[in-house]
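For the sake of transparency, this paper describes our internal protein records without simplification. The remainder of this section carries one protein's record, kept here as part of the documentation:
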Amino acid sequence: MASKHEEPPDPLEAKYLGLRDDRVRPPTDLAGFLPFIITKKEFKMQAQDIMTKNIISANVDVTVEEIAALMMENHISAVPILDDDGAVIGLISEGDLMRRVEGSGTAHKSWWLSLFSWSENTARDFITMRSHRAKDIMTQKVHVVAPETPVADIARLLEEKRIKRVPVVENGRIVGIVSRGNLMQALASTPRVTLDPSISNREKREIVMGALAQVPGLNPAHLNVVVEGDHVDVWGLADSDAVEKAASVALDNIDGLGEVSINLGRIPNYAWGI
């Protein structure tokens, strides 16, 4: 069976007609551009990249007062509780301690009413509010992640379970903690790409197109990108001002581009049948 022969894409078409030909479409995954980058950064961060490694922990025999002292002395908001083998068996947070304070001011039921309302839950509440042992007040069902867990999965876990931190466990032992604060720090440290000044205009264009392909709501098929030396011109269509701003931010995170000009028109409503 004869195979269909494909002509290589015309360089001028690739340069001036954007992505009309799938054969010159750059990969949307930034990993596809790593050969052109000096400073390589891992864009899919994992727990081990952002976790707090200096862990303040305690065993099950410590008192609640000792846990509170640990938090104040070390300026932390939670203490993992470990067994003798270093495995996480519980967690005590500021919230756990605050619930004890709030519960201490709750009015007690009369003795005769307790005869009709006594239950296992109220007994547990009594233990939680009155015990001075960490093992009695700690949260026992602790969600944990592995060092290789993607940061996006951790953020989703914290949101779904309505928790503020999660221990990182490897081979059954705690190696770190990822908190909401760690996630915010990771979000603030926006990855940047540094271009090798010796790469060609075509290679620069591929990197630029890859960065623009990451912008939500921006269709690379609607773009015409021209790179000449240190100057980058982006022409095309965008749905909104926010999308155009996002495109600007995407290219601003590439060091070594030089002057960047973004000229994106708006897609009229009638084009969508509105």
The first strand starts at residue 37 and ends at 39. The chain has eleven helices and eleven strands.
